[in-house]
Amino acid sequence: MNPAPANGLRIVGRDRYSAPVIGSRWARVVSPALVGVLLLGALAGEPDLMGESVMCSSISMGDTVSLSCDDPELEAEMKANALTPEEAKSIGCPPVRWEDETELGPDMVWDQGFATAEPTYIPRTPDPAIAARVNRAWDRIERWLGAHASATLRKLKFGADPRDIARWEANHGRRLPDDLYVSYLRHNGADGNLGAGFQLPPAYGLLGLFDIDYINWGNCQSLVIEGDLDAADPEDGQWHGSFLAVGSDGYGRELFVEPRTGRVGEAGAQEQVEYDGPMGWPSHLAMLEALAGALERGEALREWHPVVTAGCELRWAEEPAPLRQGCVGGPRPSPTPTPTVEPTPEKPTAEEVRAAGCLPPRRTPRVRMPGPRVTAEVNAVWRRIERWLARKAPVTFKSLRPPARPLDIARSEAAMGLRFPDDLRASLLRHDGARSWGFGPAPFY
User: Fold this and answer.
1) Of 9, 91, 183, 235, whose CB has the highest number of CB atoms within 10 Å?
2) Phi then psi dihedrals of residue 78, to 5 deg
3) Distance (Å, rounded) from C-alpha 178 to C-alpha 176?
């Protein structure tokens, strides 16, 4: 979580699915996480935040965001004030689509990972002189880590597949600066949360290629929902959707490359971009070469001194300290280890499969109707849900399917070799589920 700013409440999380949103009646969106978190903060000077609080919840899947607030007027106001798709594109951000304004068809299903035909992406050749300098800088950094902080050396990830970089560039319609391109070929980030296994001063974890989208989507959601075009103008020192995040401190502050000029700067949520701050550099390459030199000389890098922890990891401190002994490690392991033959697992017997419930005995379908008392109780609950959905969420209401046929329920029971509980059978006889991404308490549908 991020510390709260002085002018209001701020809750930051990077939850995979969803989180609550708290804000005042006059609240505005501050910053969402990449997936599923919208944040509301009180306007400066707003008294008694919790006394006028409104609870909202949200979830985002792709570019679709579901937002639900206790106050329908506030919810409608937030949606109306969001940037249009054209405005979002102008600041380098994808648009936000509201779930209840998106018609859900039966073909809109969760990506099951099925193989699909994909174009062939041809890697490009970066400038050889820049490539040589980037690789020399990483050689120097790796040698120092092997001699003084071998645990950090092991946490550097191997390089990105050139085809993955080509695919990223093709999908985004732009090219990475050559020095950053070559750096990803050398190390595609580091292990740990947001690359925390390898840290740049003072505590920026080294991010991988696809972390760029992770960071940018969270920042873009904030800007798009907040509806402020002026908040994304790099000429005025504001964050922009084209920025390439290369480091993160895990608390909403990033180290990034500005693609038009190649400059390295720092930015945090609701903060001015800094190119002349502690980690501002003319290029990513300049930063790597300065890092290598500071390590080799044992000097501070922009006022931050390299230190080694008891676990033989590189960190940065405001005061110098003698390097810890006993942290020497061997050379980095090869990214292509000698392949080993995996043993072929034995297939389970029919009895073992049957005991696991995966091969039930064949049965004749038999229609069983739930008891009248259970049916009445289930239908009473469904009527309450239907009334609320019809008034408050008509799109979700329309996604509810008609009743299942009793014979279809009987066939499913026979195929599974079991009987459904009466309340489940009664519920299926009311609604045979819902269309994809329809009704349900997120993230379940």
Assistant:
1) 183
2) -60, -45
3) 6
71 shares its domain with 196? no
Q: What is the distance between the alpha carbons of residues 439 and 445, in angstroms, rounded to a whole number?
A: 6
CA-CA distance, 63 to 61, in Å (whole number)?
6
Please give the single-letter amino acid code of residue 85. Answer: P
Residue 350's SS3 state is helix
Neighbouring-strand partners of residue 304: 301
Alpha-carbon distance 266 to 280, whole Å? 7
Residues written for the chain? 445
Candidates 125, 140, 92; CA nearest to 285 is 140
Inter-axis angle of helices 178-186 and 162-172, nearest 10: 140
The confidence score (pLDDT) of residue 1 equals 35
CA-wise closest residue to 191 among 138, 146, 161, 151: 151
Q: Which of 152, 374, 373, 179 is nearest to 257 (CA)?
A: 179
Cα first-last separation, the chain: 28
Domain count, the chain: 3
CA-to-CA separations, 342 to 282, 339, 345, 348, in angstroms, rounded: 49, 9, 9, 18
Q: Is 389 within 8 Å of 383 (Cβ atoms)?
A: no
Report the amino acid identity of residue 350.
Answer: A
Q: Which two tokens stand for residue 396?
A: 């979700």
Residue with tokens 């580091």: 190
Question: Same structural domain for residues 278 and 138?
Answer: yes
Reported as a single tens digit per residue, the pLDDT across 253-310 is 899 999 989 999 998 766 788 888 889 999 999 999 999 999 999 999 989 999 999 9
Could you report the per-residue pLDDT of 193-244, keeping only the tens digit for each?
A: 899 999 999 999 999 999 998 888 888 887 788 777 776 666 667 778 889 9
- Between CA 411 and CA 164 the distance in angstroms is 46
Expressed as residue numbers, the domain containing 51 is 18-81
Q: Are residues 237 and 294 in the same domain?
A: yes
- Where does residue 306 rank: exposed (0-12), middle (13-18), buried (19+ CB within 10 A)? buried
CA 409 to chain centre: 39
Query: Both 192 and 255 in a single domain?
Result: yes
Separation of CA 65 from chain center: 14
DSSP H or E segment with residue 375 = helix 372-392
What kind and span of H or E run contains 31? none
